[in-house]
Design goal:
Elements lengths: L1 H21 L6 H8 L3 H5 L5 H15 L3 H7 L5 H18 L1 H13 L4 H25 L8 H20 L11 H16 L4
C-alpha cells in the first residue's frame, strides 16, 4: 500500500510541475506516465482521467496555502503598519516558495475550471476578507480614517501579488528585479500613510 501511495504522490508532483509549466491542454497522460517511469494504465489505477489528476493537483494546493497561523498572529494587531507588513511578508514568502501556484491558478481560470474559484479564494479572497475585517476593526478604534475597506484590501493584496508575480512569472520582462523585503519596505508605508488618522 505504501508503494501505491508513493506512486500516487509521484504522479501528483510531476503533474503539478507539468500543468504549471505547460497548462492543462498540453499535458498528456502518456507524458505523465513516461515522466514517472510507468505505463498509462498504471496512471489509471490511481486516477480515472486527466481531469481527475488536474482536480487532485488543484486540491493539493489547499494544503500549501494555509493562512490560519498568520491570521491568528495578526488579528489583534492594532498598528496598521505591522498588520500590512505581516500580510505582505506572508504573501510574498508563500508565492516565492510556491511559484507554480499562480501559474496553475491562471491556467485554471483561463480554462474556466470549476476549481479555479476555490483556489482564487485561497490565494486572494481569504486575504482580502481578513484585511477588510481588520481595517473595519481599526476604524472602529479610531486608528485609521474612513475608507472603502474592501477596495483598499483588494488593491493591497493585488499589489503584493503583482509583486510576487514579478518575482516569478514576469522575470526578465520588467527590468530590475526587486527583493521582497525591498518591495514591502517601499510600498507598505505608502498604504499606511493613506490610512492612518493624522496626529
Amino acid at each position: 500500500m505504501r508503494r501505491r501511495t508513493n506512486r500516487k504522490q509521484q504522479i501528483l508532483e510531476l503533474a503539478t510541475e507539468a500543468f504549471s509549466e505547460e497548462g492543462y491542454d498540453k499535458v498528456t497522460v502518456k507524458q505523465l506516465a513516461d515522466g514517472c517511469g510507468i505505463t498509462e494504465p498504471a496512471i489509471y489505477r490511481h486516477f480515472k482521467s486527466k481531469d481527475d489528476i488536474y482536480i487532485a493537483v488543484l486540491e493539493s494546493l489547499c494544503d500549501r496555502l494555509d493562512s490560519s497561523e498568520v491570521f491568528a498572529t495578526l488579528e489583534h494587531v492594532d498598528d496598521p503598519d505591522t498588520l500590512l507588513h505581516g500580510v505582505a511578508e506572508h504573501l510574498l514568502e508563500l508565492h516565492t516558495k510556491n511559484q507554480d501556484i499562480y501559474r496553475l491558478l491562471l491556467y485554471a481560470m483561463l480554462r474556466g475550471h470549476d476549481r479555479a474559484r476555490q483556489i482564487f479564494e485561497l490565494i486572494r479572497g481569504n486575504y482580502v476578507k481578513f484585511i477588510v475585517k481588520q481595517l473595519d476593526r481599526l476604524y472602529q478604534m479610531g486608528v485609521i480614517v474612513e475608507k472603502n475597506n474592501e477596495m483598499t484590501a483588494r488593491c493591497f493584496v493585488g499589489m503584493v501579488l503583482d509583486c510576487a508575480m514579478g518575482l516569478s512569472l514576469y522575470k526578465g520582462y520588467q527590468g530590475r528585479t526587486y527583493e521582497p523585503r525591498d518591495i514591502i519596505a517601499n510600498n507598505v508605508p505608502i498604504y499606511v500613510r493613506g490610512l492612518k488618522v493624522s496626529q
